[in-house]
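Researcher: Let's run the pair from yesterday's discussion. Sequence first, then tokens, for each.
Model: Starting with the first of the pair.
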Amino acid sequence: MSSERNNGTKSFLTAPSFYAWLTILCTISLAVGFFGSLFGILDERAAKGFYIVAYITGGYAGTVQSLKALADFEINVDVLMILAAIGAAIIDNWLEGATLLFLFSLSNTLQDYAMGRSRRAIQSLMKLRPDKALVRNEDGSETYHSVEDLDIGDLIIVKPGERIPIDGKVKSGASTVDQAAITGESIPVTKEAGSDVFAATMNENGVLEIEVTRLAGETTLAKIIKLVEEAQSKKAETQRFLDQFESRYAIGVILFTVGLIFVPYLILNQPFDPTFYRAMTILVVASPCALIISTPASILSAIANAARNGILFKGGVYLEQAAELTSIAFDKTGTLTIGQPVVTDIVSLKLQNGQQSASEDQVLSWAASAEQYSEHHLGAAILREANERNIEFEKSENVKVEIGKGVQARVGDHEIKVGNRKLFNGLTNEIHDEQQKLIREMEESGKTVIYVSRDAKLHGLIVLADQVRENATGALTKLRNMGIEKFIILTGDLQGVARSVAEQLNIDEYYAQLLPEQKVEIIKKIAHKETVAMVGDGVNDAPALASSHLGIAMGAVGTDVALETADVVLMADDLEKLPYVINLARKAKKVVWQNIIFSLAVIAMLVLSVFFFDLPLPLGVVGHEGSTLIVVLNGLRLLRS
């Protein structure tokens, strides 16, 4: 059971029928030889023939791996097992040698099957993607095509209850889509014209016409599977240490075994057969199979668990790093906040002359009329608010946009202006003193204040701000309860904006108006004292992500840069996944050390039993292989959410 076999380069999964049949043939041969001899059906020579068949079938995989290791001038666990079986044959203990190889073969087969569960948990996602898609042809007809044959720009039809076969953009139709397979989101997401959709997600209740935006091999689903497979090949530091330790330890066991044979026999004049038998038993029980498999069994299971919940670890080393975090730095826009402005307040103005101003609904209606053709993000926010309130607005004419100031338009018989102070040439001085104070307070807190006038008279204010995510407070509370000591906001936004978000989330430390290189400097400074993660959008935060101990990209569905930059990718815009990441990492670390301690304890107990209680080889084999299966099963507990 070399680390190479455990990592899947030569595993039961790659050729299941072959290795499974070898184990079955070994079992049958051993059983026929043992029971035939026991009941007198077979003589000693015939029984030995069946044991030899058990040797060949049970030892095939181990022999192949041993020869490959020796060709590379390495000695591993497989070499120890094969030598022990050969030793048993030399002293004519064919039954015990065959039993050793049977249990070794069975253990390897079961381990590879169990370890394969974590791989199959991810690869099964590919089965969720349909093989065919209903394509709308240029002549209006509809025919089914293989997903692999789809080209960018093709139009496909997805009916209610069907899975979406490929990444694309909704051209027409509306529905809710269950994206749990990709993002881990438990609540279906509304999709309409312009929305992005992803392969393997479930269309629930509407017909969608989708334009293909990615080829089958380039979908988000395909990238997820590729990233997880790469992550499983990137070993944790503990695993790398154990892999290096295996070869040195195996050499030590062989030298110790040689000493156990020749010192008692040549120097102490003890009989050869019992001395050799005891040495072969030591060779078996001292082999570190359970120890070597203890880490990958746990790490791969945790990586698979995370991927099923919309979290991608780039490797086992990052899982270990997540368990050690003490501080987390956050980008603000798009991470702690939703990343787009929303209307927070509409204020009906009181003027210095005491005139009565318009109502809030009138102010919003006028502003929406002027902004209805605007492409500015503030204009879009005003239109969204009007639509959500079911406010009717009129068609505008003669629209004129003044860059950096605002927009003016003719609405009916009136001239409407919507913009900042610069657009109104001192007209804002007519606002009542109390409201002037309120405006200053809102601007200092990072909010954007938009003025609305009709026919050169100010009537109201529309106040906008980027909103803190609904789940941000809950996520940070959980992280605090888990022992994360420090939270930091790093943003290129204004000081007032950073302070406002920090106050809402009870974060003491924040840095504003930062360039990307300044974020890196702060991260490096923190990293000297703390184990720090950087959470950002994976694009403009890439340098800071790379400089932290652990780079975490938020909301990376469909974002190639985020998938490539960060160490950990949260596929959905869900801060609640952060506590899950750290909790899973800590559980994985706990299970790894449980396995390591248990493995070492079993080796010590079995070795001592050989010397003090003459532990027979079959019991040593059972204890050795049993402990290996126990650590594998313990690691597989991490597959559970």
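Model: Moving on to the second of the pair.
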Amino acid sequence: MTEKKSIKSESFWSDFSRIYKNPSLIDKYLIDNSNSIEEIIIDSFKELNLDKNYSIYANGGFGKKEMFLSSDVDISIVKNNSLNDSNEDLEVFIAKLWDLGFQVGHSVRSIKDIKKITKKDLKEFTSYLTRRPLISKSDTERQITKSLNNAWSKKSFFNAKLIEQEERYSSYHSTEFNLEPDLKESPGCMRDFQTSLWILQQCFNLSNYNEIKNSIKFSSDIESAVTSYNFIKTLRFATNILSSKNRLSFESQIEISKAAKLGKYNDKDLVEKMMKDFYGHASNLSNFNRFVFDTFKEKNSFAITQKFGKFYLKGKKIGIKNYDLSKNRDLIFGIFIAIGRNKNIKAVDTSTMNMLKENIHLIDDDFKNNNSYASQFLEILKSKYNLSSILKSMKSLGIIQAYIKEFDEVVGQMQFDLFHVYTVDEHTFKVMRNMRQMQIELQEDFKLEHELLNKIPKIEILYLAGLFHDLGKGKGGDHSKIGAQTSYAFAKKIGLSLADADLISWLVLNHLQMSSISQKKDISDPKTIEVFADMVLN
């Protein structure tokens, strides 16, 4: 097996730059690996005459023919009848697979066992959703299908999967923008897409790609999501070869980015380029996953639709009526202003999300130079409610990137230092969220900050400085100076006064010094206060 893995690895690396550009090609390697394992299993099973009394199924990744070099081989052995046969030959069979180097996860069950365990164990139920018969009688397959029917209602399955996903997210920092992601389990990686497919299968009765592609709700997003999923699979296959693990470590990033042949760059630039691609695909999978979950929630909501000016409300979500956005561009920012003014409105509904994504091109140069829309953007930054979630939603829809060129340039931008564990854009959003929390919540450790923030006459100035403070990174110079220039230009473009633009620019220019003083100096020391006062006055 080691020799075969070596041959597969050599073939993969020789073809890697082509696979990187066309990720669907990764399926050949996954299917070939699956087929070679399957052939050994079937032959070994038949040699021991186990096929007379048992059926055998491939589950999980093996069931989907997505076998990575470090994947477990998940199989389910099913009794074809109720006879109490000896398990000695089964033990010989499993031992042989282990001796051949396979990491085997297996179960031996009757139909009755399957019905019982899948009804109480979500993971086991999900595993059987992805089953694929290697050797099976038609009657056995029919009985398994029957035993799974009604084991979980749509709602109970959805709620259980939601809880499962939230627990997984909490284990992986709840973001797809970690610098060393787990390509199987991190947000935005393979498990997100797989979970989406399970929800689509079990809760929407969409069992395969063609059915999803032909659906009304998901047809416009599934193709892009599949491409992103294939890209993540490509990186995982490469990472498995290098480290036998699923984590995309810094060391693996260097090797993989070199093999991708992305151009004549140094190691750091190659990694940045590759990881920017990764974060784009991870963000796409996160958005698709969120869209699937939100769609089911809306579908099962009993809330009444209410008129709300040019919008409508349904529960805690807001939507745009059937307007032509090209003639009503004010609604693009207007819907977020409405969320910021109303405590009980929490999000944009899925139909409107699709509408906004499909019309992102409307945020063109005319839009960006329009004073009315600039005033709307400032109004969003002054939101009384939900500012953090508003900005996050605007980013996921591509609105902030379209409106602020400098923000688009740092999406997925890595930070190679000891102080940041997220990409520039994700770090920026966390800074904005933290400032917002200190403003609206009185916390024991931030009483002074809370008091001062609520005395600021123009809070939008602070938020604009926070938004721009790191947007100069990745441009080959002092990011504070670059950010100071771009933030000043943006502030002037959206109609702020010279004094306000100067203040925003000054905050961005000096944010590192202020950080150093607050974190490394004794701020009760008169000398520290004097130095800081001189910096402010100058």
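Researcher: Give me one sentence on the second I can quote.
Model: The chain has a mean pLDDT of 92.
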